[in-house]
Amino acid sequence: MPVLDRWQHQLADTGTTLFLSDRGGSIVARRTSDNSERRRLDSVHAAEGFDYSEDAIGTNGLGTSMVEKRPIFVKGSQHYNDALAALACAAAPVYTPAGLVVGSVSLGGPVEAASPIMLSLTREISQQIEERLRTSSRPQDLALAMSFMRFTSSQRPTVVMDKESILANTPGLPYVNVASHVMLWELINSHNWSSNSTLRRHLEETFIEITARRVVDGPREHFVVHFSNFGETPDHDSGVAVPSKTTITTLGRDNTAPAVVVVDGPRGSGRATVAGRLRTTRERVARLEVFVVSSAAAPPWTTVEGLLAGGTDVLIRRVEELAENEIPSLAGVVERQRKARAAGQRASSLLLTSWRDRAAPMSRRLSMPPDQRSILSAWLSARKGFPVW
User: Fold this and answer.
1) Residue 93: which of 58, 75, 68 has the closest Cα?
2) What is the pLDDT of residue 207?
3) What is the DSSP letter of 73?
4) Per-residue DSSP letter, 174
5) Over the stretch 155-172, which tens digit does the pLDDT of each residue have?
6) Is 139-238 assigned to CATH 2.30.30?
7) Which site in 52, 164, 173, 248 is 20 to 30 Å from 113, CA atoms measured?
8) Residue 73 and residue 90: Cα distance in Å, rounded?
9) CATH of region 2-136
10) Given 2.60.120, 1.20.1070, 3.40.50, 3.30.420, which CATH number is that of 260-384?
């Protein structure tokens, strides 16, 4: 990126390093001219590909600035992770023309070299990146972005789309990927817009209903699409049908979270955020315990079972990292959770985030009933015969 390259040259010999992360908190670029500093950063995994989201490692510049949506300065022991205690960093979120946080940028260096000016420099760098995003955007992209700001709401799953692009708010993320974009586009274009300005359609073999509106502002038409559970009450004030109470990943029609929820998608797509939002739609909000799967360690299954039985919700992140020999243990936990909820013996929910394309083959073959699938996966399976676990 030209902005990073230019600043790397200007910051040479200052002992600072420039980082850029995506919206999921993963570092996508690192610029430093000091070999010793590069080695030190490598030792604490402050390098391309590592996850610096606040969910993953606690308070840090890159992740926390996106959560708080403002520039921040984190120094020494203010970092949650002790491995970062020798570092100081200033960070700022990076916004798209639509006003969405697309990532963050930070300046980091040894704690003894920390200076408040780092925060001012970080603000300037983020603004330059945002300006480049604005100037490089096509007119149709800007029109799409303006509609996104106008029509989206944090309380309902919504996407704004044309043939080439799609923007989704956080509740809308489970509904979209490349395949569903194509399907939605075909469905929307099959409607006779000259006779009816609003399309309301139940998606076959699912409990999902979409409501779409055509927008003619800008160089070409695009569409705003709201998702809801089939049969929910429209919001007449908005002029389009929307869910009266958003339930993100349940296929049922009540407002009780299902026994097991799978949020399927690549890392950085907001899976954990979507899973967390599901819990806030419930009248009963239980305590939540989070386990992160790694190639070196599987969740303690006995502990997970005990928490679920005691009424605590459990979120298991990155199921795609689960080793093949651990899949039967997960399948057992899932099955017992389903049966206990069906029998009225538990009120807790088991939430899983996974990337099916990266999961072990055996996990992709797991047979899971509809209430355990993500909405998107269930829809794609019904329409295209895609495997769903």
Assistant:
1) 68
2) 67
3) E
4) G
5) 678 888 888 888 888 778
6) no
7) 52
8) 4
9) 3.30.450.40
10) 3.40.50
